[in-house]
Amino acid sequence: MQKRVAAIHDISCFGKCSLTVALPIISAAGIECAGIPTAVLSTHTGGFSGYTFRDLTEDIMPVANHWKKEGLTFDAVYTGYLGSVEQIDLVCEAVDTFGTKDTLLIVDPVMADHGRLYGGFPENFPKEMVRLCAKADIITPNITEAAFMTDMPYVEAPHTKEYIEGLLSGLRKITNGKIVLTGVCFNTGEIGAACLDGDNLEYIFTPHVDAAYHGTGDIFTSTLTCGVLKGKSLKESALIAAQYTAGCIKLTKEQYPDMKYGVNFESEIPNLLKLLELI
Ligand code: PXL
Questions:
Q1: Cα–ligand 1 centroid distance for 1 (angstroms)
Q2: Which end of the chain has a smaller Cβ tally under 10 Å, C or N?
């Protein structure tokens, strides 16, 4: 049976992030990707000013209820950027409405990077996001998001093992789900993720390309979702996600320096399919 994902993110009309990367990446892997748009913005909020923001909070539960009524089932729900605290609770409710006991909940608590909350988020947003992470089977915070949700300090790379494992212990208090902590760097020149599955902690790394392109977190978690649904382990999925994301960044850096325009993930899709062993 073809697998089916429900992706719950905004649509940033321009800028290659959230639903405009989740849909093509998940589809390219042969997985059906339905979507609940949480908001429609003219661009993402990182680096553009004057963007439009059409809030779709009111549509979340009607969509969820309709899906439930139609008897639609999903192998996974993958949540990303949510536009407000109210949406966090509605997404919890929506997952309870159309999710089944077999639906995997993958939560990327998109809200911050480089030690700062994204524009427009209130200070209490990380504390509120904890409720959604608590329900998740897999969470994929970056270092900043993990620090903000656990009330630990944000520390720039290179990190110590003690710092990373402290963040993981803090996250473990929030969720019993699997944890993929991204942006981990022990040695300059290498960046990767800590993968905690139960008590089993493993690290994956790829060579670091010095660039901070927008939307790469969404590319990472979209790819991780594909790996997990294709039956790969958490560590294998994280490695594939990191390798694909790094490949996109490397290619883009050679072509386009403006990081707010996102990465050329489209040209790397053949490589994604090879990494996932689909071709
Ligand atoms: O890539 C994360 C993201 C998604 N959606 C919107 C954003 C951001 C990050 O800034 O602004 C609207």
A1: 32
A2: N
Structure tokens at 178: 């699997």
Domain that holds residue 40: 4-275
Residue 10 is encoded by which pair of tokens? Answer: 């905004």
Q: How many domains does the chain have?
A: 1
Burial (CB count within 10 angstroms: exposed 0-12, middle 13-18, buried 19+), residue 50 = exposed
Report how far residue 180's alpha carbon sits from residue 195's, in angstroms, rounded to the nearest whole number: 5
Omega cis (within 30) before 153: no
Top mutation candidate among 38, 45, 113, 121 for ligand 1, by most atoms within 8 Å of CB: 45
Q: Is the pTM of this model over 0.70?
A: yes
**Cβ(81) – ligand 1 distance below 6 Å:** yes
| 109 CB neighbour count, 10 Å cutoff | 28
CATH number at residue 156: 3.40.1190.20
In this structure, the chain runs to a length of: 279
DSSP state of 142: B
Mean pLDDT for the chain overall: 97
What digits encode the pLDDT tens for the residues 144-196?
999 999 999 999 999 999 999 999 999 999 999 999 999 999 999 999 999 99
Q: Is 261 in the pocket of ligand 1 (CB under 6 A)?
A: no
112 lines ligand 1 (CB under 6 A): no
- The answer to whether the beta carbons of residues 226 and 276 sit under 8 Å apart is yes
